[in-house]
């Protein structure tokens, strides 16, 4: 349980650049989202289900870094999903696109500035644990930062502390609830440890063997920076990986991004049902 730890800071101050973007969003839509979703490769479709939506191109928001990867749209959508006001970040920014590590977390800082205290992060990931075959939905219960980069390094900004506890980055009470929702809907899920590599090359076979021995169940190129930032700002975090492929060396075929996107599309329906159920229970 980390409810107490997750209480938003009483006096939340924003960095100047995020503050301008927050004002822009507020000028367009004054609703306060209860939960924000950052959607991974090929999973952005959920934003199309949002009703009463305000759609803002990220290029229209001052300071928002440009998303350049296929499958990532570059939009912020605010609207209703399952009776809740949500903010959907469609267009994740990755370190390998050449952005400074501190800039990658701009969307997290933006949604926090809009008043969100909960964050759902999804991603596509390669399965390292042999039980985590393509098509598996994995709740992330811990992570390994193998990129050795940290968006919280550098001059202090926002309202977060200098040193942020990372003993429970993913809210286990929320994960328990999400798992129960999945069970109710007949959606099989697993729990696992996500390992972040900076990419953009996929891993070598030796790296995957090493990561597996280190305790990783899945590998990917995102999520951890956003989670570090969200925890620094006191947000509750739920992490979900779609296992889109077996990690390097675990089957015969070379990896490619199209395969990842296609597998993501095949998992859409289950994930959407799951995420809708989770959002319905957010307050
Ligand atoms: N490795 C790294 N990132 C990924 C993978 C993978 O196998 N699959 C989807 N994203």
What can you see in these coordinates?
The protein starts with a helix and ends with a helix. Helix content is 28%, strand content 24%. Mean pLDDT is 88; it is low at 1-11. The longest helix has 13 residues, at 16-28. It is of the alpha/beta class. Strand 3 (75-81) and strand 4 (84-90) form a beta hairpin. It binds hypoxanthine.
Helix content: 25-40%
Taking the sheet with the most strands, its summary is: 5 strands, mixed, barrel
The SS-based structural class is alpha/beta
Unreliable stretches (pLDDT < 50, length at least 5) are 1-11
Strand order of the largest sheet: 5-8-7-6-9
Percent of residues in beta strands: 15-25%
Bound molecules: hypoxanthine
Question: What is the terminal-to-terminal distance?
Answer: 17 Å
Mean pLDDT: 88
Shape: globular
Total count of helical runs of at least 4 residues: 8
Instruction: Compute the CA-based radius of gyration.
Output: 17 Å
Order of helices and strands: HHEEEEHEEHEHEHEHH
Instruction: Give me the oligomer status.
Output: single chain
């Amino acid at each position: 349980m980390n409810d107490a730890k997750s209480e938003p800071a009483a006096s939340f101050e924003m960095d100047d650049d995020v503050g301008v973007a927050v004002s822009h969003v507020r000028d367009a839509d004054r609703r306060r989202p209860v939960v924000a979703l950052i959607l991974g490769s090929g999973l952005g479709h959920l934003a199309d289900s949002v009703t009463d939506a305000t759609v803002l191109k990220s290029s229209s928001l001052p300071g928002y870094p440009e998303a350049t990867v296929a499958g990532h749209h570059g939009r912020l959508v605010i609207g209703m999903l399952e009776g809740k006001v949500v903010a959907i970040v469609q267009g994740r920014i990755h370190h390998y696109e050449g952005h400074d590590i501190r800039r990658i977390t701009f969307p997290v800082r933006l949604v926090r500035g809009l008043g969100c205290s909960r964050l759902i992060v999804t991603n596509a990931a390669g399965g390292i644990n042999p039980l985590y075959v393509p098509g598996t939905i994995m709740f992330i219960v811990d992570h390994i930062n193998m990129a050795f980069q940290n968006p919280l390094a550098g001059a202090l900004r926002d309202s977060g502390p200098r040193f942020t506890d990372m003993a429970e980055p993913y809210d286990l009470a929320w994960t328990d609830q999400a798992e129960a929702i999945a069970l109710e809907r007949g959606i099989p899920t697993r729990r696992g440890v996500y390992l972040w590599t900076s990419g953009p090359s996929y891993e070598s076979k030796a790296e995957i063997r090493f990561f597996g021995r280190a305790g990783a169940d899945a590998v990917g190129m995102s999520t951890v920076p956003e989670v570090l930032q969200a925890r620094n700002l006191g947000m509750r975090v739920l992490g979900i990986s779609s296992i889109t492929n077996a990690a390097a060396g675990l089957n015969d075929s070379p990896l490619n991004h199209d395969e990842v996107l296609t597998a993501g599309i095949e998992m859409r329906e289950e994930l959407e049902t799951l995420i809708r159920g989770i959002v319905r229970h957010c307050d």
